[in-house]
Structures are given as structure tokens and as C-alpha cells.
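Hello, quick one for you while I still have it in my head. A protein chain has come my way and I'm curious about its shape. Can you walk me through what the C-alpha cells say about the fold? No rush at all, and the record is pasted right below.
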Amino acid sequence: MPQIEEIGAYLKGVWLLVLGDRSGFDWLDITAIGVWRSFAAFLWCLPAMAVGWAAWRLFYLEQMPTGTSTGLGFILKLFLVDMTMWIVPLVLVSALAKPLGYADMLASIIISTNWLAVPTVYAMAVPLAMRLVIPGGQGLAYLLSLILLLANFTVIFRLIKTVTNNQLLLASAISALLILPSLMLSEALPPLLGLMPIYATTLQ
């Protein structure tokens, strides 16, 4: 598993790519081994994800009747949602690499976006943590979450634009493959897995 010093180098490389500097590739391990090792980013993101799970659990319990409990299964389902949202876009990007003509860039896309997830997941955990520790801070937390989400979309596009050597149409297509499936899964999976509160029906 990559150590903190390696991750610092990877994040520097990713940041340079976001800025449009292709020398960022010099800081990344663009090899087959580097592709597999980049999935260790998911493990490094787990503490930040756990903050999100705690915030979701709080939201769920607030909406449910008093006495409702959530066990380990609830947390495991949240883990499954995050893992699916991480993996499915990369599977789609990989499946379409040859048809869309970017197979030679695939390793760079996977490695750079995996490591980009580390700072972005921790940044997105900040408003979730606010919701946990600041009573009545939901409005501010939602606003900050929206701002960070839009910033994340922008950063992903800038990163992919550099990786594709400024091919705007291709960068837009790949960015959409990375972003849209995650958004769709974030809406579809919680109700499917029983993670959404069941609101009482008001009698007329």
C-alpha cells in the first residue's frame, strides 16, 4: 500500500495536471502496477467516507420514528454505495476506451482520477462533519456541499483535459462518464438498499 510520502508525490502530480501542466505525469506511476496501486486511494478515503456514513445515519434516524436503530448492515450498505459509485464509472471509461480511441490514455485516466479522489473526498467530508457537530447547520452544510460538488466537477474536467492533451470533446465525454454514473447511482442505490427514511403518510 502506498505510504504518505508517495501519496504526497501523486497528489502533486495530479495538481499539476489540473493546472494544465503535463509535467505532473512525472510524479505519477503510469504503469500497470501503478493502475492497481492507485485503487489504494479508496482505502485512504475510508476515514472521510466514514464521516459521510455517520452524517447519513444521523439524517436517517432524524426522519424515522423514535426507537429506530441502525446496525452494522446499514454501514455496510453505505460502504457498498460508495464503492459502487467509485468503480462503475471507471468500468465504463475502460469499456469505452477502445471504441472512443483513448485506450493509450486509459492508465493515466484511472491513476490520476483515483488519486484525485483523495483530496476531493476529504473536502466533501467537511460539510458533512459540520452537520454532525453544528446544531442547525444543515443549510450551511448543504450550500458548502453544492459549492464543493461544482468545484469537483470543474477539477475533473480540467484534469481530463490535460490528460487528453486538450481534446475538449473527448475530455467532455470522459468527464461525463466519470461524473454522471456516480450521480445516478447516488440517487438510485440508497432507496434500493433501504437507506432512505420511510416517511409516514399523512391521513387526509
Q: What stands out?
A: The longest helix spans residues 106-133. Confidence is low (pLDDT under 50) at residues 200-204.
